[in-house]
Design brief:
The complex is a heterotrimer of chains A (118), B (643) and C (483). With 118 residues, chain A is mainly α. Chain A is built from 4 helices and no strands. The model of chain A has no long low-confidence stretch (mean pLDDT 84). Chain B is mainly alpha-helical and 643 residues long. Chain B is globular and about 110 Å long. The N and C termini of chain B lie far apart (78 Å). By secondary structure, chain C is mostly helical. In chain C, helix 4 runs antiparallel to helix 5, helix 7 runs antiparallel to helix 9 and helix 14 crosses helix 20. Classes of the chains: A mainly alpha (118), B mainly alpha (643), C mainly alpha (483). Chains in contact: A-C, B-C. The interface between B and C is medium-sized, with 25 and 33 residues.
């Protein structure tokens, strides 16, 4: 039974190996010219550590929320695509309805100008 | 027959509705034609019903079920037997006469159509009352006649005295009606039904039912019911001490005095007791009370009648006194005799009132007898019919009053329940007084020297035919009905089995009219009556200065009588001003200070204060809100986990 | 997937699709046609939804979508009620929202999505579908409260509502997850049996019950989870207030009945005591604080808290007659509240919010008909005969007395009498005070359709009285099949 987990073990080994190789290669091969911007931790365009009462642009959140919706859509699509043979036409239609609803939302946000920064 | 029973009251109701709503539109003469047709139809049908009943038919059934509640049904139904048939005939006959008479009497009154509406409505209500077969409908009729009576006493509502009088009549009747409705409630409680026949048939088995009242006394239910119902009868039939409204009711137009306050409505109490005779027979206590109250009323009100100078008030006090006689008969269990006197009295008293009205219009609304006199030359028909009425009232054979009054006196004489002796003495004395005041009226109004001013005398003439015809038509039964009916009354089959037969109802010896008359010549009442007439003749024709001397000599008694024993002043002091003072005290101390100040406004202020304090809980900070929620969760959790 | 599955949720499907359609259509239509089309389509959709709910209704429960949802008389009646009251909301709001720039596609779409959420709530047989319905409704409500972007009060109200709503949702979810852990099922109709089978410590069971109860009580706004109610009622535009004051109450009744009476019915003795406390303090607090209010929307918010307390009385009897009386109560309450807010909306005009009680002084002199309708509605809210509000209170009290809790009925009556004060004060202000002169005064200029519906709504409060017994029969029939 434990043999079933062999691919997982292989996956772990390959993934960590690849990560280590890439990091090491980057360290060895790339030029190294650091400055302040490059050294600070980065998140969503903000300073990571500062007064939390600062003003920020609400558009960040708008974009983030819109992004999450379609991000999750993809997360739903992968297992659906894998299982499409088993769930048949019913599964296909269900996903189409789901996508249709998302499309309606997409059209709405597009037409309302939510995708434009300015 | 059912259709006819229905038509009798409905004809009057329809006439009243037409007269009431469209009277102004269709005009005076159309109004009186319609109402007279309606009431005339009722009268004819009533006579048909009467003959049908005399043939031995009777009816008891419901017409319409108004509602059912908790197993008790409230119905409109008729009970047609000898008693109700006689009452229907009397009521519709007198009512018809009064309708005709009104055409002449009210000719120039602005409220002409309103008046006809009221009296037709009254006839309807009275018929519903006498035809009822259950207490609910009886109560409806009872209150409806009271309402119309109130409206009619205050008919001339711009006159302050009329408004005061109708208010007084209404309030005093309230007292009686309270007793009446309590009586009905007691019937309802004891028997569980409002139907006469069911109540009567169950009455004897409930005879020994007792209720423990205040102070731990045990009351017989039947006695309680009878006394409560009789309180109602006292109010409507104006028995001492609830009689004070009737003399004042003379503020209404004279036809009303004749119809409502002499012939029909005030006899509703008498009718009630006769109708309830199966109950009253079971309670000697109630009979005694009735006997004493009746005797008191008969004598004391006759005495007040002696000193009145207003022609209508004399007749009013005589009505009170005669109602006392009827009540005495009821107390002596001579129910058919009471109804017999009710019928004869209805005829001759209506006659006397209408005759008085005739005199009043001839003198242009002059009512003081001291400004009359010698009218017999100007108004012969009024004079003759008045004399017939007075002879009947005084009880001189062969006029109707003789038979009915003699029968009452005999019945009391033979009764042996407590109080009978007192009542017997009272009614015997009453005979003298009655004869005296009724002939005092005749002599003062129609004999002697004319005392009115010249101008009034020049206009004197006999009243028109619409006035005199009813007088004549009423004079006939006043003269004849007594002798005609007396045999069946004394034989015990006048009212059939509609009323309970008292122990002293039948008289062995003199069962015929002639027999009673010969008996009458040997007994006291006739001679007392003749003595009264003679006295009146001496006082007011022979020696006209005598009344003044006597009243000065006996000034104390005169004053007592003139003040009507002070009932009005006493009620005024106790109930009117006492009530006002008590009300004021309760208003200031109890209502304003305690209830308003402390209870009502105090509570309100407290709630308002709470409200303002609790309002501050709503701070507007979302973290406070969340905090309250969390507190709530914690409290619930700890409660749930503890228990 | 069978036909039956579709039929059970057909009204929801239709309304959801139409909501998407209206939302998109709104983007493409020229500005002049937008309002008309959105409005008309929404009304038609709601009518179709109500019609489908009636046509495909089944008296006994019919399950669909693997038992996620069900259909029975209860859900049919409430769905129809939700659709109709939302239709009334749209009609009443038109003039008001139009004058404030709120009359647009989003309003219709949000209202319709909310309706879908409510319908799912009434029809849910599964903790997840119930929660999804609840959140769908809640998200729509948060947005509708904030619909007026330029108003700080509206934003503040929406923020509070959202934060507290999220808190309550968390509590509810925690309770639900505990329930799942205890019983291993999410199906509501299986909960009751499974939860008794669990033996051992009652602690997790009690905790789950309390957390679910708290979540539900927050949604209907009962003390002490009521703090959001006054601020949200007052802060949101009246066109949104009327929406969130009526139809969600029906859905709230449905989930309370399904989850407490049905799903957790075997724990009735435990939640009855808590409901008793909650309903009495709701009645007390709602009625007493309402007296001190000067804003009629805020006053109606406290009145809503008191009414929720009253209808919980019917629930806590734990008997069919009690549930039926609570259902009748909440239906009647929705009708009357609709009318009350309808009058407020009709009296508001561009730049005038008819939301201060003093604005109503002397209304009878300037607009006697509006004042009369308001009088009927206030009498009904106060429970004065011969209005249906009286009947509603009476039937709940009857159920409470029959359940042997006479003292509770007495307390409820006393608190209702205190509550009558502030309703009657509106009447007094309208009829006995002088016409307000300090400000422009109210204009009663509803659109024609709103005027007709308002008249019907107002008179129905009295005219329906002879047939009100039928409502109880209907409610009893709907609830009897469940137990």
């Amino acid at each position: 039974m434990l043999a079933n987990y062999l691919p997982v073990l292989l996956f772990l080994i390959v993934a960590s190996g690849l990560g280590v190789v890439l990091l090491v290669a980057g360290k060895l091969l790339s030029p190294h010219r650091p400055n302040e911007q490059k050294l600070s931790p980065y998140e969503c365009g903000f300073e990571a550590f500062e007064d939390n009462r600062m003003k920020f642009d609400v558009r960040y959140y708008l974009v983030a929320i819109l992004f999450i919706i379609f991000d999750l859509e993809i997360a739903f699509l992968f297992p659906w695509a894998v299982a499409l043979d088993d769930i048949g036409i019913f599964g296909f239609l269900a996903m189409m309805i789901f996508l249709l609803v998302l499309v309606a939302g997409f059209i709405y946000e597009w037409m309302k100008g939510a995708l434009e920064w300015e | 027959m059912k259709v006819i029973y229905l038509l009798v009251p409905l004809a009057c109701l329809v006439a009243a509705i037409i007269a009431g709503f469209w009277g102004a539109k269709i005009g005076n003469s159309a109004t009186h034609r319609i109402t007279i047709t309606g009431v005339g139809l009722s009268f004819v049908l009533s006579v048909v019903v009467l003959f049908d009943v005399l043939d031995g038919h009777s009816f008891n059934g419901s017409i319409y079920t108004w509602g059912t509640s908790g197993g008790v049904s409230f119905e409109v139904g008729f009970l047609i037997d000898h008693l109700s048939a006689v009452m229907m005939a009397v009521v519709t006959f007198v009512s018809l006469m009064v309708h005709i008479y009104t055409i002449g009497y009210m000719r120039d009154d602005p409220g002409y159509t309103r008046f006809f509406c009221y009296i037709a409505l009254f006839t309807f209500a009275m018929l519903m009352l006498v035809m009822a077969n259950n207490f609910l409908q009886l109560f409806f009729g009872w209150e409806a006649v009271g309402l119309v009576s109130y409206l009619l006493i205050g008919f001339w509502f711009k006159r302050e005295s009329a408004v005061a009088a109708n208010l007084k009549a209404f309030l005093v009747n309230r007292v009686g009606d309270l007793g009446f409705i309590l009586g009905i409630a007691a019937v309802m409680y004891l028997f569980g039904t409002l139907d006469y026949s069911a109540v009567f048939s169950a009455a004897s088995e409930k005879q020994n039912a007792v209720v423990t009242g205040v102070l731990g006394y045990e009351w017989s239910w039947i006695t309680l019911i009878c006394l409560l119902l009789f309180v109602g009868a006292m109010g409507k039939s104006a028995q001492v001490p609830l009689h004070v409204w009737l003399p004042d009711s003379m503020e209404g137009p004279t036809p009303i005095s004749a119809l409502i306050h002499a012939a029909t409505m005030v006899t509703a109490g008498i009718f009630l007791v006769a109708r309830m005779s199966p109950l009253f027979e079971l309670s000697t206590t109630a009979s005694s009370v009735i006997l004493v109250i009746g005797g008191l009323t008969a004598l004391s009100m006759a005495l007040v009648g002696l000193v009145q100078n207003d022609i209508k008030r004399v007749v009013a006090y005589s009505t009170l006194s005669q109602l006392g006689y009827m009540t005495v008969a009821l107390g002596a269990s001579a129910y058919s005799v009471a109804i017999f006197h009710l019928a004869t009295h209805a005829f001759f008293k209506a006659l006397l009132f209408l005759a008085a009205g005739s005199v009043i219009i001839a003198l242009h609304h002059e009512q003081d007898m001291r400004r009359m006199g010698g009218l017999r030359r100007y108004m012969p028909i009024t004079y003759i019919t008045s004399v017939i009425g007075s002879l009947a009232l005084a009880g001189i054979p062969p006029f109707s009053g003789f038979f009915s009054k003699d029968a009452i006196i005999e019945a009391v004489h033979h009764s042996n329940i407590p109080g009978a002796g007192l009542a017997y003495a009272a009614v015997l004395m009453g005979v003298v007084v009655t004869a005296f005041y009724s002939f005092r009226l005749i002599f003062m109004v129609f004999h002697g020297e004319p005392r009115m001013d010249k101008q009034a005398r020049s206009h004197l003439k006999e009243s028109p035919w619409v006035v005199t015809v009813p007088l004549v038509l009423l004079a006939i039964p006043s003269l004849l009905s007594g002798g005609f009916l007396v045999e069946s009354v004394l034989g015990g089959h006048f009212l059939g089995d509609a009323v309970a037969q008292g122990p002293s109802a039948g008289e062995g010896d003199h069962l015929t009219a002639v027999g009673l008359m010969t008996h009458g010549f040997l007994a006291a009442p006739l001679w007392l009556a003749l003595g009264g007439v003679f006295l009146a003749w001496i006082f007011y024709v022979r020696v006209p200065s005598l009344p003044g001397n006597v009243s000065q000599r006996l000034s104390l008694i005169y004053r007592i009588l003139h003040r009507k024993y002070g009932f009005d002043q006493f009620y005024q002091w106790l109930f009117a001003s006492g009530g006002v003072r008590l009300g004021e005290w309760l208003w200031k101390r109890a209502d304003i200070a305690l209830i308003d100040g402390f209870a009502v406004n105090g509570t309100a202020n407290m709630v308002g204060w709470f409200s303002r304090v609790l309002k501050r809980l709503q701070t507007g900070y979302v973290y406070h809100y969340a905090f309250v929620m969390i507190i709530g969760v914690v409290v619930f959790l700890s409660w749930g986990l503890w228990s | 997937m069978t036909n039956q599955d579709i039929l059970v949720v057909l009204p929801e499907i239709v309304i959801a699709l139409m909501a998407c359609f209206i939302l998109v259509l709104d983007l493409y239509l020229p500005a002049t046609k937008k309002k008309k089309f959105g409005y008309g389509l929404s009304l038609v959709t709601l009518m179709v939804g109500a019609g489908l709910s009636i046509v495909y209704s089944e008296p006994a429960p019919v399950y669909g979508l693997n038992g996620l949802v069900l259909m029975d008389s209860l859900s049919a009646i409430l769905k129809v009620g939700i659709c109709i009251s939302t239709g009334f909301v749209l009609v009443y709001s038109r003039g008001y929202a139009d004058a404030r720039g709120l009359w647009k596609g989003e309003f219709f779409a949000l209202a319709l999505f909310g309706v879908v959420g409510m319908m799912v709530m009434t029809a849910s047989n599964h903790l997840l579908s119930l929660y999804v319905g609840l959140e769908l409704l809640a998200l729509c409500l948060y947005t509708m409260v904030a619909l007026r972007i330029d108003s700080t009060a509206a934003s503040e109200a929406a923020m509070k509502y959202f934060v507290l709503g999220a808190l309550a949702s968390g509590i509810l979810l925690y309770g639900m997850s505990l329930l799942y852990g205890l019983t291993g099922t999410l199906y509501i109709n299986e909960l009751s049996a499974s939860i008794v089978r669990h033996d051992g410590s009652t602690l997790p069971r009690t905790m789950a019950l309390i957390l679910v109860l708290v979540g539900l009580l927050f949604k209907i706004g009962a003390v002490p989870f009521h703090m959001w109610v006054p601020d949200v009622y007052e802060g949101s535009p009246t066109s949104s207030t009327v929406y969130l004051a009526t139809a969600p109450k029906l859905a709230g009744f449905a989930i309370i009945l399904r989850l407490l009476a049905d799903g957790l019915g075997s724990l009735a003795t435990e939640w009855q005591g808590m409901l008793l406390v909650v309903s009495i303090i709701s009645l007390a607090l709602g009625n007493i604080i309402a007296i001190a209010q000067s804003n009629i929307k805020r006053m109606l918010a406290y009145s809503a808290i008191a009414h929720v307390g009253f209808f919980l009385l019917g629930i806590l009897t734990g008997e069919v007659s009690g549930y039926a009386s609570a259902m009748a109560y909440i239906l009647i309450y929705a009708v009357v509240t609709l009318g009350a807010f309808g009058v407020i909306l009709a009296l508001s005009s561009k730049g005038v919010e008819a939301d201060l009680i003093e604005d109503y002084s002397g209304l009878n002199q300037s607009h006697p008909w509006a004042a009369f309708i308001m009088l009927l509605l206030m009498f009904s809210l106060a429970g004065i005969p011969p209005t249906i509000g009286f009947y509603a209170k009476l039937s709940v009290l009857q159920a409470v007395v029959n359940a042997g809790m006479t003292w509770v009925a007495v307390v409820a009556v006393v608190l209702s009498v205190i509550g009558a004060f502030y309703y009657l004060r509106i009447v007094k202000v309208m009829y006995f005070d002088d016409l307000a002169t300090s400000h422009p005064g109210l204009q009663f200029r509803p659109k024609q359709d709103a005027r007709i519906l308002l008249t019907i709504n107002g008179l129905a409060v009295v005219v329906l009285m002879p047939w009100i017994g039928k409502l109880t029969t209907l409610c009893e029939g709907a609830i009897e099949v469940l137990f």
